[in-house]
Amino acid sequence: MVLIRPVEFWVLGDAASVERQRSLGQSSGAGGVLSNCPSLLRKIVALKRGDLGVLSRMAALVMVLPLAQRLLSLPSLLKLLDRRPVRWRIGNYEPERLVRLTQGLLKQNVGMFRPNCLKQSLILFYFLRSSGWRVTILFGVSKDGGRLASHCWLEFKGAPIGETDDPRTAFEAIYVYPSPTSEADPKNDGQS
After folding, report:
1. Which residue would you say has higher pLDDT here, 157 or 91?
2. d(C-alpha 70, C-alpha 75), whole Å
3. By CB neighbour count within 10 A (0-12 exposed, 13-18 middle, 19+ buried), where does 145 fall?
4. Mean per-residue pLDDT for 68-91?
5. pLDDT at position 149 over 90
6. CA 131, 61, 84, 157 torsion: positive or negative?
7. Greatest extent of the chain over all pairs of C-alpha atoms, in Å
8. What is the pLDDT of residue 155?
9. Residue 124 in contact with residue 154, Cβ under 8 Å?
């Protein structure tokens, strides 16, 4: 059952769907996933030609990020992720498609593949910037009563991307990369 769980999450989309399938007796072992074959086929068909390659590259980045976060300062890590790779070109992906692929990968809830704002933002930052999209990564804090909370998010064309709620209403941005002045610089090698 443990080996089938990531497939169930990918196919069904969330924990509630998996539990609903289990309660209906449709998710016992491999038969449960196979009984949802039409759903699985729809998900596979929905993947575009290069999606599996992008997902594997995202998975590789998920596995490398913990080490990079321990060894590098935040500015150094962001500069490293901001490089435009030549070998890892992923083609023309719309930002919304990359958000869906990243969130789908992280919602597997297995091992390192667990959703959190920092991981999602760093992965999306790398893939969106390397695809030529001008996104900004922001780190914010808020104080609710005596508790300090933090959040990380991306902005594209001045609006948050990949967020269900607008984090700007709850968090004060304390660090922004790249800084707005460096993005406005005509000498910046960023693509449009």
Report:
1. 157
2. 13
3. exposed
4. 83
5. yes
6. positive
7. 60
8. 96
9. yes
Q: What pLDDT sits at residue 166?
A: 94
CA dist., res. 148 & res. 109, Å (int): 26
Q: Kindly report the average pLDDT of the chain as a whole number.
A: 77
**Mean pLDDT of all residues in 121-130:** 93
Q: At what angle do helices 74-81 and 51-71 cross, to 10 degrees?
A: 160
- Residue 56 is predicted with a pLDDT of 86
Alpha-carbon distance 127 to 58, whole Å? Answer: 8
Q: What are phi and psi of 107, to 5 degrees?
A: -80, 10
